Amino acid sequence: MSAGALLAGTPGTPTVVLVHGLASSFRVWDKVVPRLETSANIVAVQLESSSSIEADADDVAALLGPDAIVVGHSRGGLVATGLAERHPELVAALVLLCPPWSRESRLSARAPIERALAIPGLGDLLWVLASEDRQRAAQQNAFAPHVPVPDQFVADARSRGREDFVRSSRAIDTYLGARPLPERLGGLRMPVDLVFGELDARVARPVGHFDGLPRARVTELDGVGHTPPWEAPEVVATLIADYLPDTVESAAPAEET
């Protein structure tokens, strides 16, 4: 499989790579990109989600030059980590937003509905019979309770399909089963920002699991669920801007329409 990309921002400035999560697309970054485009060359990746985190990481590597700031949301955080492991010369810093950090941390993946979706036949039937409203309800746990699920997120999941969802989800378990995220980050030499939502219902809070990593900073966002790029884009942009030169005003909230 290969990856495509939406290119935005200002050529000649530092490169910021944005990697979406499971059953998602580059549109998850729609509120972040306007806050950085004057100070960064932005590569918003569109993954074709192979059965391997490592393969996805190599696909992203094919789009990049050296010293990129790599930002990954959820599953995309693992792809970003895989990129740093396999191609460290391409990565200057990592910003990981709500990444699953062990197989056991994946709260929603252990729920009955996601386990049923993985069963051939039954999973196909459940997917086909699910209305748009039902799929929207199923995605509510990706956001804080007070945040409505955007239409684009429902459309992205439906267009991806069940097989892509199951294949991409299994890749997460395989990757974390081999080595959990804290162990992987401990072997990296670039700085890492880890961001988790206080109200995340998909990934368990990593209390103490990243302690002792000298180059890692952990931030918990109050009132935010599993999708900080949409729920708190100004905070995400500011965290990224910390790695950009002369970006005092670059992360200021853009006018939204």
Which helices and strands appear, and what pairs or packs with what?
Layout: E1 4-9, E2 15-19, E3 41-46, H1 53-61, E4 68-73, H2 75-86, E5 91-97, H3 112-117, H4 122-129, H5 132-139, H6 151-160, H7 162-178, H8 181-186, E6 192-197, E7 216-221, H9 228-231, H10 233-241
Parallel strand pairs: 2-3, 2-4, 4-5, 5-6, 6-7
Antiparallel strand pairs: 1-3
Question: What can you see in these coordinates?
Answer:
The chain has 257 residues and is α/β, with parallel strands linked by helices. It has one domain (4-241): Rossmann fold (3-Layer(aba) Sandwich), CATH 3.40.50.1820. Helices cover 35% and strands 16% of the residues. It contains 10 helices and 7 strands. It has helices at 53-61, 75-86, 112-117, 122-129, 132-139, 151-160, 162-178, 181-186, 228-231, 233-241, and strands spanning 4-9, 15-19, 41-46, 68-73, 91-97, 192-197, 216-221. The protein has a 7-stranded mixed beta sheet with strand order 1-3-2-4-5-6-7, with helices on both faces. Helix 2 (75-86) links the parallel strand 4 (68-73) and strand 5 (91-97). Helix 1 (53-61) crosses helix 2. The radius of gyration is 17 Å and the shape is globular.
In short:
This protein has 257 residues and is of the alpha/beta class.
Poorly predicted residue ranges: 247-257
**CATH homologous superfamily title:** Alpha/Beta hydrolase fold, catalytic domain
Count of discrete domains? 1
* Extended strand count: 7
CATH class: Alpha Beta
How confident overall, as mean pLDDT? 91
Order of helices and strands: EEEHEHEHHHHHHEEHH
Profile the largest sheet.
Answer: 7 strands, mixed
**Strand order across the largest sheet:** 1-3-2-4-5-6-7
Main structural class: alpha/beta
First-last Cα distance: 35 Å
Strand residues, percent: 15-25%
According to CATH, the fold-level topology is Rossmann fold
Number of helices: 10
Helix coverage percent: 25-40%
Q: What is the alpha-carbon Rg in Å?
A: 17 Å
CATH architecture: 3-Layer(aba) Sandwich
Sum up the overall morphology in one term: globular
